[in-house]
Fold this sequence. Notes:
Oligomer: single chain
Strand order of the largest sheet: 1-2-3
Amino acid sequence: EQAARLEAQAVQLSEWNQKLEERVAGQVAELERVGHLKRFFSPQLAELIVSSGQEKLMESHRREITVVFCDLRKFTAFSETTEPEEVMRVLREYHEAVGPLIFRSEATLEHFAGDDLNDEGVWRDGELVVPMSRVTEDKWEETVTFRHPPTSPPDGDGQGVVHADFALAAHRAVVDVDPELGLVTVVRVDTAQDVGKALNPQSVVGQIEGGIMQGVGLAIMEELILDHGVIRNPNFTDYLLPTILDAPDVEALLIESEGSWGPFGAKGVGEPPTISSTAAVAAAIRNATGRAINRVPVRPQDIAL
Length: 305
């Protein structure tokens, strides 16, 4: 009788252990699901989804995004700072462009679906699903030829469609001039420039500021001195370049316009300020001194003598 009682207790203990293991496994799985969802949602929303048992409702939407994450560089950062409508527009354009290429290559994006990509391959839920050797074994190649809109030589009056596009910029310079020593400090340069479409406004402003700095150098510093065919200032000790200490304050107004044939309507933005900012500085010196400044760079002797 005692042996039977011990055997029954052993069976009951085994059942309790099994139930305990199942409960622990369930709790661990729930923690893993919450941790996974917290990568995409706030902690409160992730716990709400798991507690309702409806986390699979988000699965198809998440997969649609992560498929593209493996193929578009910096897409995650872009999607975190952009409106959802803009994200979906980019995805549609992406699939419209890549879809025909995938079809011709007899490939598929879904095969490489994952939520991370590194040198080892494509990962999903912490598991390597496609090694990099498999991802790269099929070569995708496409050749595209781009030509700008047609142009034609000028007629007898110098008129015609001789340019594919125009880049316009206006500059105003403010200078301090010491008329006795002939020294010039460029205090400020303001500009308004037609940039077509500013794809990255901060980068566009940086290009404009860099072009203005080149223009300032051409206006008051940079000059190759030739003496009977010999360059007398062949090094950067004597050939002066503007540094950050010479940089004027810059206010740039970006004017976006339609109709440019550049990528997404963008135009080149670095060259125009190099040209007209030089003229703006020279005009400001002429206006400040009353002297007929007709050369650049403007030297001290052009002002003081």
